[in-house]
Amino acid sequence: MGRVSRRAFAAATFAALTPTPRASAAPRRRAAPAEMRGVWVATVANRDWPSRPGLTAAAQRAELTAHLDRAVRCRLNTVILQVRPTADALWPSPYEPWAHCLTGTQGRSPGWDPLGTAVREAHARGLELHAWFNPYRIAGHADPARLVASHPARRHPDWVVAYGGKLYYNPGLPEVRAFVRDAMLDAVERYPVDAVHFDDYFYPYPVAGRTFDDDAAYARYGGGFASRADWRRDNIDRLVRETAARVREIRPGTRFGISPFGVWRNAATDPRGSATRAGVQTYDDLYADTRAWVREGLLDYIVPQLYWHIGLPAADYAELLRWWAKVARGSRTKLYAGEALYKAGDPAQPAAWQDPAELSRHLALAKDHAQVRGHVFFAAKDLAADRIGAMARVVADHYRQPARPPR
Questions:
Q1: CA 134, CA 137: separation in Å to the nearest integer?
Q2: pLDDT at position 17
């Protein structure tokens, strides 16, 4: 080997046999985790936005973008905006009037396009925009004369049921189901919304001593069912199936999700139910078989409203989270937990909600269930107020880095 030492020769040989990294190769950045981090923005009765009816278009737009900016600062990735609060619209709909919450006068143009602007501004900030619709609620009062004269409920009074001091479309009429579906999906045809979202209102919540008068519809269409309850559930199932199919047809890639009341059935009613003692059961009282929608894969995601604290005897958050995780296991439906941010720091709520760490504990608990893919917080006004710093605690404990929404 002449003057070359064995050690030098070995080193040279190893170097020759070892591939040299290409100069263009850069260290790989770890992809952001996929996790739903959402907030609801309710417009019904001006709950979250606009802060009051009758603001100028510029003021409404400024309030809306402030909500979007706040979501970004909290490292959220999804805004669920209520765009059809009371059978009226936050976009120029050919089916229904402009929403009352915008101008204070149903049917009056606000002078801008709130939904179109929301989609554009959300996407510019890296947020998803889910369009939230209430299918059957017409008004928070029982006087049809207070609706704008052109309202479909006034043109079709046979579609309407007055119940508990409010007005609803009758889910038992096929023509109603077709109308509300078309009215809602007009928004999907017009705008690149990331999802269609329903809340917990199907048949209305029970009111003691009152009867939802659908006798004529049941007599006409309910003959093939063992009970009125079965017929009502089938009406809601049809709306869900038909909406899911139409969303896929109109805008492939747009998802369909529902945020039901958190208790399907109590175990005392049905052994498949949760170990709860809730006063309302969606299957029996709202005629919404939410468990079946998940098991059958009808939905892209579900956000049960788990608006109770850990350890509540009648409806323990931990028990309901476990129950929903079991329901979602093996299905195509993604599970997110609906969180009661509005209760944090409310003096009317139990002691657990006076603890700024309660919500953070919810997110920590969810990490024990692989099926829970994120959380959605109710609602935007409470995100802004953050009375006792509960949301700040969630961000510090769980949202230190950005996350992309699950797809």
A1: 6
A2: 35
> On the CB side of 57, how many CA atoms lie within 13 Å of its CA?
10
Domains by residue range for the chain, with CATH: 32-136+172-398 (3.20.20.80)
Q: Which residues contact 192 (CB under 8 A, 6 or more apart)?
A: 119, 123, 251, 254
* Assigned token pair, 217: 């519809």
The order of strands in the sheet holding 160-163 is: 137-139, 166-169, 160-163
Tell me the residue type at 215: D
User: CA triplet 349, 392, 305: central angle to 5 degrees?
Assistant: 50
- Distance between CA 139 and CA 147 in Å, rounded? 8
**Maximum CA pair distance of the chain?**
108
| Dist. CA 297–CA 117, nearest whole Å | 32
Q: In terms of Cα–Cα distance, which of 79, 196, 186, 184 is closest to 137? A: 184
- Other CB atoms closer than 10 Å to residue 296's CB: what's the count? 15
For residue range 348-370, list pLDDT tens digits in order. 999 999 999 999 999 999 999 99
